[in-house]
Model the fold of this input.
Amino acid sequence: MLAVQSFKSADSFQIEFHQRCGYLNDPHVRALAWLLLAPDLLDRHAPQWHGKIATLPIQMLEGLDVWLQNLDHQPDALHAYLDMQPFARLGRYAEKLMAFFLEHQGVLFAHGVQVRAGKNSTIGEFDFLLHIDEQLIHWEFATKFYLLESCGAGDDADYFVGPNLADTLGAKMHKILDRQLLLSTHPAAQIHLPAPVSCAQALVKGWLFYPEYELPQPSVFGTSVTHCRGFWCTFSDTMNLRADRYMILPRLQWLAPAKSAVKQTMDRQALQSYLAEYFVEDTMPVLVALLEIDGDVAVEASRGFIVPDDWRTRAGQRVKLVHPST
Done:
């Protein structure tokens, strides 16, 4: 059965997840279980976040094990809520899953409310407006995946860069804290609010990836001690990977640790052949699950982004845009 508390050991997260959620088979229920039970990505006590990091209240997780088990047996309500549409963005998919849970909890006032000033001017969007303890709460919700590029041996969150190099953890959080969480103060937002917003915070889930198998404990990045983590390595270094089987994870399967029939996985030679062909045309890193075989099922033991051989150089250039002295 599932435990109520979040997982405590980052290094054994996959083990903990399979032990507690191994009986879950529906992929959307498994993704939702990860969102609810995985450690928060950020330390809500870290000074750089100014007390604006949310965490799921423990009372919301009471009875969660039975609820998830029943949902896995009868997932039709969740599927209908998702509309089973082909989500283009992982973030939207995760938001929809979280909205389903918050609605079940009876605390969801509104989700995805766009604030406009005129017909053609969008000011922003409320991810979640919640009624908790007779107060109106605003939550921005983010599910993020970043790779540590430590070229400057820095400790700023901007050294965590996105796989496509488009953003950094620091830039994302500055946007949330300095702009998105202020949305309720805008005059155009008032028609959407039944009462003043008493608290605006960010609920952030995700995985962080470290060079090769170097998984240092976070220091002053502002990340939680127990955050979910993996590795990243270049395509040339994939010859050093060791696992029973491997699986390429499509973007919408990045949330929960992987579980698959063995026949749907690949060996290392097949993985290297796939990646060699893939990187001829594309530079986007590929997320790979390293699997252990358990009977006719393979479960994720660890995960990592495989990056093109020149990715570190390009990532370092991205960091230098923020830290020119690096």
Summary: The two ends are 48 Å apart (CA to CA).
